[in-house]
């Protein structure tokens, strides 16, 4: 037979037992041609364009799922950062665009649409300030819209004014969605060095250098890597790296094939495959479990950062070998609420915010889906974002903060969203003040790129 | 393009038979290259996922009539079984088939639905996947 019995069975095992699926196929749509002075006309243009390209998205993805017997967990859409085409709009008008995005997403049958975004690492336009200030209302009044703001980059430095503004936006979003465990904050990402072709919602947007329309795919598969690491048993690191790479290679190849097939069915260009390992709250589909299988007692133990660094590096090496279209974030995600192992580690008190921060220095993406007490001050949140941005800016990598100051909750409580967003125990935050530092405002200058120690 | 050396050799022999013994090596080469390039064009104009070959995997408790039930459905949709391999371990069987449905009037989905219904009836599992997924995952 052309294929070995074991090869075929290993593929079946991946999909049936080890939760291997394609995490997302994301249609990136440019809205740059949708501006009009009249917001009603602009909204109609946005709606029509999303429907024109996105109408068949879910159906085509389902056809590909059936054809290859591998499920695609999410079918989503990202759009041009809304502040760019609609820079002339004000708060109220931006909210109308948000409502339009929500309605279009519902119409084409997707759960999230991302790109209610602004890129302000160097400074703001008037429209960007209006958009940022409208984020809490936009996230509270819509179900499907996701927002992100880039506040820092290695080339521009860290815009502390933007960080302070975002800290207020996060607090306000938490309050405005307090009846649902501050869920608005789960749809809001603050970035440093955001990438333009990221297919993973909530942080996805269709960058300005991207084409009219493109299809990007994000793979998944922590469960597959977990079983491979377990099977490898007690072996040295070179062998372990080899095992991880072989597994990731297969996952990436499958992901790219399926992404290309969906793009082909749409009749559009295929963009990139994002090789990030993305966990889900399903048991066994956890990055934390992989780190434990590598030999640490629990996430948070000394050695955790090294284990994660090695995992992340192996993922990249194998992914790059498997596909010539690797892009997006391409690392390992360590969201707390979406990973059962991470949740357990936080509940047991093994994993602190500080250790998580260290871990983000060696993987994508950052402090992701972290719930903190509702009374955490805006200046403390700004301090956390500034720290995370510094890690990204200095190390020339993407970092992000998706933090939930759960309104009215404190340490010991839990926020629970169900589904892929999962649940997060409230983590304690240092009560030392950052006020004097973050309130200086202005911009932390861009770093030097030599003498890199 | 996925022509093996063996296939090219067979094509060359066929070309020699066709052109007769008098044909010079250059002429034969020209004819063969011509056909290969035509094949190439056909291949690239259709997408990779269109080879029409699918891999059927089934598992379950061994019982009589499983292979017959599956092959009956495949023959009904005019699918062509290219390869079949089966293993029985104690009470369990695993069977893998490569089926070509490119000539079938029914589509992938029809076959999938028919086999899923049959699998439920027999109390076994049947998976149907396009061949490309295995080629991409297991061949560099």
Short précis:
By secondary structure, chain A is of the alpha/beta class. Chain A has 14 helices and 13 strands. In chain A, helix 7 packs parallel to helix 9.
Structural class of chain A: alpha/beta
CATH class annotation of the largest domain in chain B: Alpha Beta
Give the helix proportion of chain A (percent range): 40-55%
Q: What's the CATH topology name of the largest domain in chain B? A: Alpha-Beta Plaits
CA-CA gap between termini of chain B = 14 Å
* Average predicted confidence as pLDDT of chain B: 82
Spatial shape of chain A: globular
* Rounded average pLDDT of chain A: 95
Task: Supply Rg of chain A.
Answer: 21 Å
Q: Which overall shape of chain B is indicated by the principal axes computed on the Cα atoms?
A: elongated
Query: What is the strand tally of chain B?
Result: 4
Helix percent band of chain B: 40-55%
Largest sheet of chain A: 11 strands, mixed
Sheet bearing the most strands of chain B, described?
A: 4 strands, antiparallel
What is the correct CATH architecture of the largest domain in chain B? 2-Layer Sandwich
Largest interface, per-chain counts? A-B, 24 and 24 residues
List the helices and strands and how they pair.
The complex is a heterodimer of chains A (453) and B (140).
Chain A: H1 5-16, E1 22-29, H2 39-54, H3 57-68, E2 72-79, H4 91-108, E3 113-119, H5 126-141, E4 145-153, E5 157-159, H6 160-176, E6 188-192, E7 213-219, H7 222-232, H8 237-266, E8 269-274, H9 287-293, H10 304-322, H11 340-347, H12 353-360, E9 366-373, H13 378-395, E10 399-406, E11 414-418, E12 422-425, H14 435-438, E13 443-444
Parallel strand pairs in A: 1-2, 2-3, 3-4, 4-6, 7-8, 9-10
Antiparallel strand pairs in A: 1-7, 4-5, 5-13, 6-10, 11-12
Chain B: H1 5-19, H2 25-45, E1 53-61, H3 66-76, E2 80-89, E3 92-100, H4 108-122, E4 125-130, H5 131-138
Antiparallel strand pairs in B: 1-3, 1-4, 2-3
Helix pairs in contact in B: 1-2, 3-4
């Amino acid at each position: 037979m052309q294929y070995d019995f074991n090869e075929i069975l290993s593929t079946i095992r991946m999909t049936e037992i080890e939760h291997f699926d394609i995490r997302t196929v994301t249609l990136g749509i440019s809205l740059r041609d949708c501006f009009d002075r009249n917001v009603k006309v602009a909204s109609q243009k946005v709606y029509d364009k999303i429907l024109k390209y996105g109408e068949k998205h879910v159906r085509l993805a389902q056809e590909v799922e059936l054809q290859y017997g591998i499920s695609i967990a999410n079918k989503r859409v990202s759009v041009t950062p809304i502040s760019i085409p609609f820079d002339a709009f004000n708060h109220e008008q931006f909210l109308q665009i948000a409502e339009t995005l929500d309605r279009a997403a519902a119409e084409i049958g997707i759960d999230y649409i991302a790109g209610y975004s602004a890129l302000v690492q160097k400074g703001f336009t008037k429209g960007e300030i209006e958009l940022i200030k409208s984020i809490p209302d936009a996230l509270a009044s819509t179900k499907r819209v996701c927002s992100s703001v880039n506040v820092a980059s290695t080339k521009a430095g860290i815009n502390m004014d933007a960080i302070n503004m975002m800290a207020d936006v996060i607090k306000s979003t938490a309050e405005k969605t307090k009846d649902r465990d501050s869920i608005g904050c789960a749809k809001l990402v603050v970035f440093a060095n955001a990438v333009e072709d990221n297919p993973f919602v909530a942080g996805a947007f269709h960058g300005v250098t991207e084409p009219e329309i493109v299809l990007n795919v994000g793979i998944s598969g922590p469960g597959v890597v977990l079983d491979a690491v377990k099977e490898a048993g007690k072996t040295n690191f070179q062998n372990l790296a080899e095992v991880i790479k072989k597994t990731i290679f297969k996952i990436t190849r499958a992901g790219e094939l399926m992404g290309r097939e969906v793009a082909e069915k749409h009749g559009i260009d295929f963009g990139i495959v994002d090789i990030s390992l993305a966990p889900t709250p399903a048991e066994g589909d956890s990055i934390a479990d992989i780190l434990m299988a590598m030999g640490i007692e629990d996430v948070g133990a000394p050695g955790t950062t090294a284990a994660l660094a090695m995992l992340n590096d192996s993922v990249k090496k194998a992914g790059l070998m498997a596909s010539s279209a690797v892009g997006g974030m391409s690392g390992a995600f360590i969201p707390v609420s979406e990973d059962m192992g991470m949740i357990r580690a936080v509940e047991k008190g093994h994993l602190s915010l500080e250790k998580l921060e260290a871990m983000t220095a060696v993987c994508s993406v950052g402090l992701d889906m972290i719930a903190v007490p509702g009374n955490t001050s805006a200046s403390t949140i700004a301090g956390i974002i500034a720290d995370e941005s510094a890690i990204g800016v200095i190390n020339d990598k993407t970092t992000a903060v998706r933090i939930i100051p759960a309104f009215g909750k404190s340490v010991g409580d839990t926020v629970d969203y169900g589904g892929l967003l999962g649940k997060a125990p409230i983590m304690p935050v240092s009560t030392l003040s950052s006020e004097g530092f973050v309130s200086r405002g202005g911009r932390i200058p861009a770093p030097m790129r030599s003498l890199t120690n | 393009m996925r022509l093996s050396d063996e296939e090219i050799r067979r094509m060359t022999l066929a070309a020699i038979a066709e052109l007769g013994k008098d044909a010079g090596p250059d002429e034969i080469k020209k004819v063969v290259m011509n056909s290969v390039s035509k094949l190439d064009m056909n291949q690239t104009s259709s997408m990779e996922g269109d080879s029409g070959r699918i891999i059927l995997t089934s598992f379950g408790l061994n019982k009589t009539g499983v292979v017959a039930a599956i092959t009956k459905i495949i023959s009904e949709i005019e699918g062509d079984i290219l390869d079949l391999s089966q293993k029985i371990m104690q009470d369990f069987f695993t069977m893998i088939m490569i089926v070509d449905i490119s000539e079938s009037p029914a589509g992938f989905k029809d076959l999938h639905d028919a086999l899923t219904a049959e699998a439920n009836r027999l109390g076994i599992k049947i998976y149907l996947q396009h061949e490309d997924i295995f080629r991409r995952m297991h061949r560099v």
